[in-house]
Structures are given as structure tokens and as C-alpha cells.
Design brief:
By secondary structure, this protein is an alpha+beta fold. It contains 5 helices and 10 strands, in the order βαβββααββββααββ. Keywords: Cytoplasm, NADP, Oxidoreductase, Queuosine biosynthesis.
């Protein structure tokens, strides 16, 4: 079965040390989307951007090669790929002799697209400091507000309010206080979230309380971002909205979901926490 409980998460693992695309464990998006009222027609565009920092293989003479990899999984794909299975799959290349980086990228594209059920973009980068520079996310920081918070889960959409009597604004806000937990292992996932919108001004105190209310919530990265997008849409009715979460890495991978009311191709700005 393709449910999180049947994935490699939380289980003892034997590293086979060989290439094996069957290690990839797809999980359907539909069930979690149904929980937040998403049916066949998606209310957003988007992509899940993965960065891999532990990718290595052998050239045809047996010399190890290393690279960083960027993977873009479209939000319209019917499946996500469970992250531990992704790590096991990538580690399977460590002793594989491969002609060049282009041949490796072609294999990755084929296997990941098959697992996700849609075309996955793959880009390999040299392991240099300028390959993925560290920057700060744009936006007004919500975290400096002097407010009391005492609710840490489940996510509470009632905290979200917009002043519909005020003039519309175009605003980008940012918080580094996003935390949620793996639904299988309970391990924490830490992230920063950037929200850009046009519409009635959203109350900053309520928005921060809402984001903190994910702190003990059990859900995958992609599902959290979609929940944030849907809750903001329903409670605040912005004319335009995008939600971009940059999570810290675990097992050599970071996952960065982006959801937007308009088609967009976000950058991949590595933050200082990544």
C-alpha cells in the first residue's frame, strides 16, 4: 500500500549499495488534499523543490564524482515521493559507474517522473560555494512581534483575519517559526515560510499565531504548505497569493514547497538555515 505507514520511515534500513529505482516510495496526494477540501481541480499552481547534498557516483574509470541536485516535482503530480525512500534511492548510485553527469540526470529524470506520475525537472550542480549561494528571503519579518502565544496545535485557521474595510495592499511577510512533525516518526521539521499576497491587509499577530499552531502538527512539508494556502484563501480571500516554505534539510535533502494562485516559477534561494 502507498501510505506513509508502509514507507521506509521509522524502520531499520539496510543500505544495499546498488542502484534500485524500486526503492522510491510514492504516496498519493489525494487523501490529504481531500481533508482540506481540494478535489480534482487544484486551487493553486506550484512545485516542490528538492535539493540533494549527498549525491555521488563513479565515473567509468571508478573515480568518485559528487554533485548537488535540484529536483522540481510539479504540484499537479498525483504522488509525492517519501523522503527516506528518496535518500535510499540516491545513495544507491554511490558505487554505480556512469558515463557522465548527463547520463545520471537522464536516469534520475526517468525514475523520479515515473514515481511522481508527472515530469520531474532535474538539474545537477557542481559542489562549489557559488552553485547555490546563501541569501535572505524577502519580506517583512513577523517574528519580532511582542505577543503572547499559547496554542501549538492543531492548526487554527480562526487566527487568520483580514481587514476588509481597509485599502488593499501588496505585501510579502516572512516567518522563521514554522515547525511541524513527520506524520510517521514524529521527528520535527523546521522551516521558514514566505507569504506574498494582494488584497485586504492580513492581521500580522493572527497570522503568526496561525503559523505557530503547526508546531505539534503531524503532516508532510507539501501538505502543510497546501493547508496554509487553503486556509489563507478561505479566511482572508486575497486576490493573489503565494506560499513558499524553505525547510531545513534532513538526510541530505531539503524540501521546499511553493503554491501560488497564479502560474509562477520560483527561484531556489538557499537560506542560512539550509
Amino acid at each position: 500500500m502507498s501510505t506513509p505507514e508502509h514507507s521506509p520511515l521509522g524502520k531499520d534500513t539496510v543500505y544495499a549499495g546498488r542502484y534500485d529505482p524500486s526503492l522510491l516510495f510514492p504516496i498519493p496526494r489525494a487523501d490529504k488534499r481531500a481533508e482540506i477540501g481540494i478535489a480534482d481541480t487544484l486551487p493553486f499552481h506550484g512545485v516542490d523543490i528538492w535539493n540533494a547534498y549527498e549525491l555521488s557516483w563513479l565515473d567509468l574509470r571508478g573515480k568518485p564524482q559528487v554533485a548537488m541536485a535540484e529536483f522540481r516535482v510539479p504540484a499537479l503530480s498525483p504522488q509525492i515521493i517519501e523522503s527516506k525512500s528518496f535518500k535510499l534511492y540516491l545513495n544507491g548510485f554511490a558505487q554505480e559507474r556512469i558515463a557522465d553527469a548527463a547520463a545520471l540526470a537522464a536516469t534520475l529524470t526517468h525514475d523520479l517522473s515515473a514515481a511522481a506520475g508527472a515530469a520531474v525537472g532535474v538539474q545537477l550542480r557542481d559542489a562549489r560555494a557559488d552553485a547555490l549561494p546563501v541569501i535572505d528571503l524577502d519580506g517583512h519579518l513577523l517574528d519580532d512581534q511582542n505577543i503572547a502565544i499559547d496554542h501549538y496545535g492543531p492548526p487554527q485557521a480562526d487566527f487568520l483575519q483580514a481587514d476588509t474595510g481597509a485599502m488593499p495592499v501588496a505585501e510579502t511577510v516572512l516567518s522563521h517559526l514554522l515547525r511541524s512533525n513527520c506524520p510517521v516518526t514524529g521527528q520535527p521539521d523546521w522551516g521558514s515560510v514566505q507569504i506574498a499576497y494582494r488584497g485586504a491587509p492580513i492581521d500580522h499577530a493572527g497570522l503568526l499565531r496561525y503559523l505557530v499552531s503547526f508546531r505539534t502538527h503531524n503532516e508532510f512539508h507539501e501538505q502543510c504548505v497546501e493547508r496554509i494556502f487553503v486556509d489563507l484563501t478561505q479566511r482572508c480571500a486575497p486576490r493573489q497569493l503565494s506560499v513558499y516554505a524553505r525547510y531545513t534539510r534532513r538526510g541530505g535533502l531539503d524540501i521546499n514547497p511553493f503554491r501560488s494562485s497564479a502560474p509562477a516559477s520560483p527561484g531556489n534561494p538557499r537560506t542560512v538555515r539550509q
